């Protein structure tokens, strides 16, 4: 394709629907834009990391559980800023997701 690896990496990391590795069967996306960040998205993300058993640097793509069942990543504004923090689990939208609600959502995936 006559391009350098860095150009491919730039492309893949810029557009959210390109993936660097396969997502889990249940893929969680946590909005991190300012209203959700102020509403506790960081705590929700940390709770999901523990609940899903994923680790790593979320700034380098989705975190995937060892069994490939779950994955987690940050997302930009999901267009419901008044109900922060907001997440997606696959295509299902969830608002005001605190640690307790995150626990319920993960339990429903098992
Ligand atoms: S900032 Fe999270 S939905 Fe808009």
In short:
This protein has about 110 residues and is α+β, with helices and mostly antiparallel strands.
Verbal overview:
The protein is α+β, with helices and mostly antiparallel strands and 110 residues long. It has a domain of 71 residues: Glutaredoxin, CATH 3.40.30.10. 34% of the residues lie in helices and 18% in strands. Strands 2-3-1-4-5 form a 5-stranded mixed beta sheet, covered by helices on one side. Helix 3 runs parallel beside helix 4. It is globular and about 50 Å long. It starts with a helix and ends with a helix. The relative contact order is 0.21. The model has no long low-confidence stretch (mean pLDDT 94). FE2/S2 (inorganic) cluster binds next to helix 2. FE2/S2 (inorganic) cluster (FES) binds next to helix 2.
Question: Top keywords for this entry?
Answer:
single chain, 110 residues, alpha+beta, 5-stranded mixed sheet, 34% helix, binds FE2/S2 (inorganic) cluster
Give the secondary structure arrangement, pairings included.
Elements: H1 5-14, E1 26-31, H2 34-38, H3 41-52, E2 63-64, E3 70-75, E4 87-89, E5 92-94, H4 99-108
Parallel strand pairs: 1-3
Antiparallel strand pairs: 1-4, 2-3, 4-5
The protein binds FE2/S2 (inorganic) cluster.
Order of helices and strands: HEHHEEEEH
Strand order of the largest sheet: 2-3-1-4-5
Q: CATH superfamily membership of the domain at 27-97, which one?
A: Glutaredoxin
Q: What is the tally of beta strands?
A: 5
Distance between the termini: 42 Å
């Amino acid at each position: 394709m006559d391009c350098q690896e860095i150009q491919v990496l730039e492309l893949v990391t810029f557009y959210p629907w390109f993936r660097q590795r396969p997502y889990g069967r249940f893929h969680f996306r946590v909005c991190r834009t300012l209203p959700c960040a102020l509403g506790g998205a960081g705590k929700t993300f940390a709770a999901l990391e523990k609940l899903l058993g994923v680790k790593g640097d979320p700034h380098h793509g989705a975190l995937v559980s060892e069994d490939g069942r779950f994955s987690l990543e940050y997302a930009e504004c999901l267009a419901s800023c008044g109900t922060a923090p907001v997440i997606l689990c696959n295509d299902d939208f969830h608002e005001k997701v605190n640690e307790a609600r995150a626990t319920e959502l993960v339990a429903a995936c098992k």
